[in-house]
Design brief:
InterPro entries: Inosine/uridine_hydrolase_dom (IPR001910), IUNH (IPR023186), Ribo_hydro-like (IPR036452). This is Nucleoside hydrolase. This protein is of the alpha/beta class and about 300 residues long. The chain has a single domain, classed as Inosine-uridine Nucleoside N-ribohydrolase, Chain A (Alpha-Beta Complex). It is built from 12 helices and 11 strands. Helix 2 links the parallel strand 2 and strand 3. Helix 1 runs antiparallel to helix 10, helix 1 runs parallel beside helix 11 and helix 3 crosses helix 4. It is globular, with a radius of gyration of 18 Å.
Length: about 300
């Protein structure tokens, strides 16, 4: 039986330790044909997130994949302070080579619009690992191109879980609530992977040791990235792998329990900025609310260990 044709994807990202793990998982997955990486400020500033994307591609020997620098700040409010959790370089001080290819001269928005318009409608998926600023600008400034996206799968939000930057707010949506609101309210098919799920896909120290012992270069790199999480926080026996859940859901949706909810995004100035609310007048979004955590981790490990 012939193999299915790889799915054409764009990764929109702010690397970021867990972004880096998600990117390496995508690179290890033959189901994906990665057309390009677009970067956004989030975990750390835009120059560093763009550099980190190029460094990850250089490590994986994939300098053929172009990197396009995107939004340096949210749509209409000041950008967040860098997360100390990811270190000064955004990837926990883990050594990576310099990019083998410079970032592209075109802005991410310009490239993404042109790319979508040149492909059959619905044939491109976007895997979004950071604030949704680039995608919101596409929706608002180039709706002709945005409507051609087959689906966005984004890590973001909290439904029944407590937030990680406020009582109800998760970092990616909190970093640019107006962008999140624009993407949620658009007609582009959207699947959200919130904290309700990502906190249940947890890497233990034993998991890290197994990756290190496997001998594979991608597995060893991911082990070092996760280990940097443990080194930054004492007395932690596991760490949630937020952004890789986007790739895992795209690869194996059967591991996730997905429901359609009608959602709105809080765009106020208070502690709930970026928070999601289930609202009958909101926009329909597919939301992952459950996951087989051990099976998701097993899939991650198997993909990394064979490369």
């Amino acid at each position: 039986m012939p193999h299915a044709k790889p799915r054409l994807i764009v990764i929109d990202t702010d690397p970021g330790i867990d972004d880096a793990i998600g990117i390496l998982l995508a690179l290890a997955s033959p189901e994906f044909d990665i057309a390009g990486i677009t970067t956004v400020a989030g975990n750390i500033g835009i120059e560093t997130t763009t550099l980190n994307a190029g460094r990850l591609l250089a490590f994986a020997g994939r300098g053929d994949i172009p990197v396009f620098q995107g939004a340096a700040a949210p749509l209409s409010r000041p950008g967040p302070e860098p997360l100390n959790l990811h270190g000064e370089d955004g990837i926990g001080g883990v050594a990576l080579p310099a990019p083998t290819r410079g970032r592209e001269s075109r802005h991410a928005l310009e490239w993404l619009a042109e790319f979508l318009l040149a492909r059959p409608e619905g044939s491109v998926e976007v895997l979004a690992l950071g604030p949704l600023t680039n995608l919101a600008r596409l929706v608002l400034e180039r709706p002709d191109a945005a409507k051609r996206i087959g689906r966005i799968i984004a890590m973001g939000g909290a439904i029944h879980e407590r937030g990680n930057v406020g009582p109800r707010a998760e970092f990616n949506l909190w970093a640019d609530p107006e962008a999140a609101a624009a993407v949620v309210a658009s007609d582009v098919p959207l699947a959200l992977i919130p904290l309700d799920v990502t906190r249940r896909v947890r890497a233990t120290r034993e998991f890290v040791e197994a990756l290190s012992a496997s001998g594979g270069p991608l597995a060893a790199m991911v082990a070092r990235l996760i280990q940097s999480y443990f080194e930054s926080e004492t007395n932690r026996e596991s760490r949630p792998l937020h952004d890789p859940c986007v790739m895992l859901c795209a690869l194996a949706p059967e591991l996730f329990r997905i429901e359609e909810l009608r959602l709105t995004v809080d765009t106020g100035a208070g502690d709930d900025a970026g928070a999601l609310t289930i609202d009958g007048s909101g926009s329909p979004v597919h939301v992952a609310l459950g996951v087989d955590g051990p099976a998701a981790l097993d899939l991650l490990a198997r993909r990394l260990m064979r490369n």
